[in-house]
Each structure stands twice: as C-alpha cells, then as structure tokens.
From TrEMBL:
F-box domain boundaries: 1-48
Pfam families to which the protein is assigned, alphabetical: F-box-like (PF12937)
Protein name: F-box domain-containing protein
Entries under SMART domains matching the protein: FBOX
Amino acid sequence: MWSNLPFDVLAKIFSFLSPDSLARARSTCRHWNACVDTYPIATSFILLSLHHRAWFLALPTRNRGQHCYVHNPVIDNWHLLSLDFLPDPVRPVASIGALILVRPTNCTVLQLTLCNPFTRQFRYLPMSNIIRTNPAVGVVTLDSVQHGPNPNFRVYVAGGMSEAPRGGAMYELKLEMYDSMDDTWHVVGFVPTEFAVRLTVWTPNESVYSNGVLYWMTSARAYSVMGYEIDGHRWRGFGVPMADKLEFAALLCRNGGLTLVGGASEGEACIWELKEGDRWG
C-alpha cells in the first residue's frame, strides 16, 4: 500500500516526521527517497518546525573526531552523529534551516560547506572572488523558502589575508557577500583597516545577527565587539562589561536581541543584553 501512495500524499505524511525519522524513512526504499527529493518543500525544515520543536546541535570545539551531538527535545535524548562523510575536519559557522554551514580546520584558506548530518549529504559553496585566509564569516538567514527546502541566506566574509599586488600578503579590506538565490559572491563594501586587522587576528568565533546588524567579538584582551549595519553599510565598535577581567565571553541572539555571556575565573557567569545606544544592561 505504501509503495502505491501518490508522492504528494506521502510527502504530507513525511512532513510530520522528526529529522532523524525522516532520514531513516528516505533510506527505506528508492520510492521514498525519490519522494523526499521531489517534494523538498513539503519535507523542509520550515514545515517540520511546525510539528516539532527545534533540535539542539553541538560540535566539539577541539579536535576530538569528526562527529557532532544533537539533542531531541521531544524524547529528551542525545544522539551522536558521525561527520566522517565530510572530506575535512570542520568547525561550525551557522545553522541554516535544517543544514549546517561549516568551514575546515585543517586549512587557512576559506572553503565553506553546507551539510546535513542526518542524511550525510554535503556540497561546497563556490569559492569567493578574493582568495583569503582566516577571514571572519557571518550568516544572515532570509525568510523566503521558495527556491529550495531551506531558507535563502547570505554569507558575509570580512577581513583575512589576501595576496598583495606586488607580492606578499595584505589585510583584505573588501567585504564580500554570497547570495544563495543566485549562488554567487558579490563585493558589497569595504572594511576599515583597524577592523580588518581585528577580524583577521582576534576573532576566533563566528558572528551573531540581530536587528539588521552582524556582530563579532574580538578575543584579544580587553574584549570588544564589532558590528556591521547591513542596510546602512556602516561599521562600529564598542566595549563589553568587565572587558579586562573576563576569562571567557561569547555572543548569542536571545529573544531577537544581542546577548553577551561571560565570566571571570573565580566568579559566576554573567549575562548582559545590548540596549539602545550600544549600552549593556
């Protein structure tokens, strides 16, 4: 009976499955696998999220093997997923719908890859127009899903080192943006030299997007934050609380706003939210 169901009916049923169940379902037979490929929007993250709470995914921060951990909130259970299908060891850049954008850890030249740890599929994004090493990367997820099973997105690359016109290397000042809608990189602006240096040398983590601004935190003491206003094409920088005393600090988006989590070696972790005028509260 199941093999005779029309694809649109079967796809509707699949839309109620959790990510792990969908991955197992598509591996059952060629008919079901073809259904998932033929009706990607019906089995996309957007519709899945209507029926299932979001899963939490974590990758090790140090080289402890090619794997990641995912938490299923429905049954409150953790899963270990191997990433050995990827050709290189990676660290995460951002989640994009049901996919993960990653970058290699064994090469300084930026090569971004989209992967699905459940279906064990991946594809490389095109190389940027400017070959650069150790740049900062930021991701903005767009609302539209009309062009594929996941939201459209844009990737911003800032800083890094590139080849100088007369040989050697220089800090790259051009800001590039990859648009998933046309699968192409574009030069969209410039980065102040001071910011380009900090983004290259002192920015080990990726960005956080909040209210039209991409934020990066520098790891050099004292900690500080850099922001790029996408619509206005403006850069700005500001400090963080206890900047010279923090032993660890990280940015995240909470309730739509920028949040800072940090703490000293002998104290408890603290949480601050960014208010108007770049004030922390």
